[in-house]
């Protein structure tokens, strides 16, 4: 597996350590030492990078703003946020604006490599599906208002296309829509969507649900309901 990584890191010792492990894997990396440089490098050639490791605390422009600007350019490039901050609110904020994973410093380089590999595998599988020529117009899931094609990664609400869903957002919706009205706990969704290789917090689910709702509601799809103290469910039976 050959990767080209944009490493956004202003700490030389951390960058050198990560670069050493990336080199052992046969990966290449470009390094940006501040937020402005990171956005400029990504904007110049977004298709060049398979993944971004992004420090939260950066000079000139912090990691949150960098992630927002990167997501405006590419809604799907994988982002792993690295930070010395450990508060739950920082994690939710980072994931809420589009990061796929959140790693708190100090971290194990071996664990980070495993996370990168797992995330990249998922993305490549999803891209393979998207690039296949598939003229089959059948939808695996059809509810009162929603149609979902897993092969095409396509979601329609009353025949309106739901756009810019990230891989995790699509998987969350697909998982819940398979069993309308069933309540899924955060632990269940972490297990079903992120899988056993994920070592994050339950609030990760909340952050992704929030972004998923925002994108669905752009086409009037208020179909993700919170069941307080339990979790979330999909239900479009009451949509008018």
Automatic annotation (TrEMBL):
SUPFAM superfamilies attached to this UniProt entry: C-terminal effector domain of the bipartite response regulators, CheY-like
Keywords: Activator, DNA-binding, Phosphoprotein, Transcription, Transcription regulation, Two-component regulatory system
Entry GO CC: cytosol; protein-DNA complex
4-aspartylphosphate PTM positions: 55
Gene Ontology BP annotations: regulation of DNA-templated transcription
DNA-binding region of this protein: 138-236
Ranges for domain Response regulatory: 4-120
Domain of life: Bacteria
Database matches in CDD domains: REC_OmpR, trans_reg_C
Residue ranges of every copy of the OmpR/PhoB-type domain listed in the record: 138-236
GO molecular function, one term: phosphorelay response regulator activity
Entry protein name: DNA-binding response regulator
Species, as recorded: Lactobacillus helveticus CIRM-BIA 951
